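Please go through this chain and its backbone structure tokens and walk me through the local backbone shapes. Keep your notes short.
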Amino acid sequence: MRIIVCGAGQVGTSIARQLSMEDNDITVIDQSPELISKISNTLDVKARVGFASHPTMLEEVDAENADMIIAVTLSDEVNMVACQVAHSLFNVPTKIARIRNQNYLHPEWKHLYRHDHLPIDYIISPEIEVARAVIHRLHVPGAVDTIPFSEGKIKVVGIRCTLDCPMINMQLERIKTRLFDVGVFMMGVMRDDEFIMADEESELLENDEVYFSCDSKYISAAMEIFGHEEREARRIIIIGGGNIGLFLAEYIEAEEPDVKVKLIELGKERAEYVAERLHKTTVINGDALSQEILDEANVAAAETVIAVSNDDEVNILSSLLSKRFGCQRVVTLVNNAVSYSPLISSLGIDVAINPREITVSSVLQHIRKGRILSVHSICKGKAEIIEAEAVESSAVVGKSLGELSLPKGIVIGTISRGDEVILPDENTVVKTGDRIIILSQANMVKQVEKIFSVKFEFF
């Protein structure tokens, strides 16, 4: 496929890297010569310095023959205009835009993005996606990653193993068998920068991140096996009253009425605006790095602190101060994950939220069309978790998993069949309508397409 990526920042670069690994023809456009030079030297893509929304620029990169444009520059307006130009002048079939300003996203304005107005097929809102990711993690305390599938019937969970984990130094295959016996499928392990499949001959080590899938009803039991018996938080402090913090507080007020929330916001005008929008949340105007403000918020009694300001240093330091003053658990937004990720676990941060990885997953979900229902990039892009539907014409329907002879690097975790959640073995036969949760190493995604006969079509 021919794909134009507008923007060579962290998200644009990650998308270009992921798609170029799958033998797509990728062109990246950015105004920054430095970013374009960097991407040219590290990725097998075409890279051009220019203004992504200018018709002459899109003409130069052969937009007329492109299958898709993905606009993820820092400017919402540039992203929207790039999609408009791509549609009106070059008839690009699929247009995806990242839009951050919530003024553009009010439900009453949704008709704005019709093809006869501003033709954008899929809108990605990083702030809303990040807030939802935080919410998923709050529902599974102790998890570093939580991804719901099949309308929430199945969850894929990532947990970090500490010395308290009873399975430390146990063989991965033995752990996989033990979990299978209680309805949990172990998919793989993230160790440093390497993703290890669960059937490899290796032992579970301290600080490994284990990914497993299971029926959502069994999540608590699965967490207990790994030594996690935390309860969902009833007292929460949110640091940062931006779009993410406000969305989180509004969600908790609406969906979790028994949870007490306090929100700390540095800017006076923003704090006043947030206080007007919220009804039960206590809003504190002050610096989250101040002990006086943290004392006022009673951080010592908080079960979870969620630091989601737009400053990584504030998020990290306020999280560490909160734990020092007695908070049980911290969830921390880290934009510059490349620089800070090696420090996160050693500093004592329980959950680090990587907005780039979340945004890339949102984009991939719209790229992997056909019968692909959901896609999530995990482990710094080393692997993808895919939810696919088995259609009647699919080559997998009527075959057992043993007959499929899945290559190394691809595993089927869980199957949703109607109201039933199935933990499959090699004798399980795939039926029409099955929703199949697949873990694939990044370089094996094309094999998933081939094996499951799910065409990643572009509309």
Observations:
- Confidence is low (pLDDT under 50) at residues 454-459.
- The two ends are 12 Å apart (CA to CA).
